[in-house]
Design brief:
This protein has 2 helices and 5 strands; from the N terminus they run ββαβαββ. It is an alpha+beta fold. A 5-stranded mixed beta sheet has the order 1-2-3-5-4, covered by helices on one side. Strand 2, helix 1 and strand 3 form a beta-alpha-beta unit. Helix 1 crosses helix 2. It is globular and about 40 Å long.
């Protein structure tokens, strides 16, 4: 196995509502190869099938459309924009929120792609 180049995670898991918040990141050198999309698709399948969750939520800054494109490629649906939600230094950023339900179409891997490894821990 090689060195880790990114991370997909679930946080804020609510068993009351069967929901979780999804986050992901990847190093610059690994971008554009579909690694995050495949990893996110695998994490979605794991969250719905193994954890029994119903709703997964995420958000991305509007000035990072590539992050939103990854979520859309996996099936996440835009739900709205939270204006100036995040502040980094003196700048504020709008965040587009998205969600995927267990009843929505599942992510599909492209021909020749293998599933990413999903480890709980």
């Amino acid at each position: 196995m090689g060195e880790p180049v990114g991370n997909v995670g679930l946080s804020g898991v609510s068993r009351t509502h069967d929901t979780a918040w999804v986050s992901y990141l990847v190093s610059g050198s690994a971008r554009g190869r579909g690694l995050v999309r495949r990893s996110l698709a695998a994490a979605v399948t794991w969250a719905f099938d193994d954890l029994g969750l119903f709703r997964l939520e995420l958000g991305h800054r509007l000035n990072n459309p590539a992050s939103g494109a990854v979520a859309e490629a996996v099936g996440f649906v835009p739900e709205g924009v939270e204006r100036q939600k995040l502040r980094y230094g003196n700048e504020r950023y709008d965040v587009r929120t998205m969600a995927l339900l267990a009843t929505d179409p599942r992510p599909v891997l492209r021909p020749g792609e293998s599933r990413a490894v999903v480890r709980a821990g």
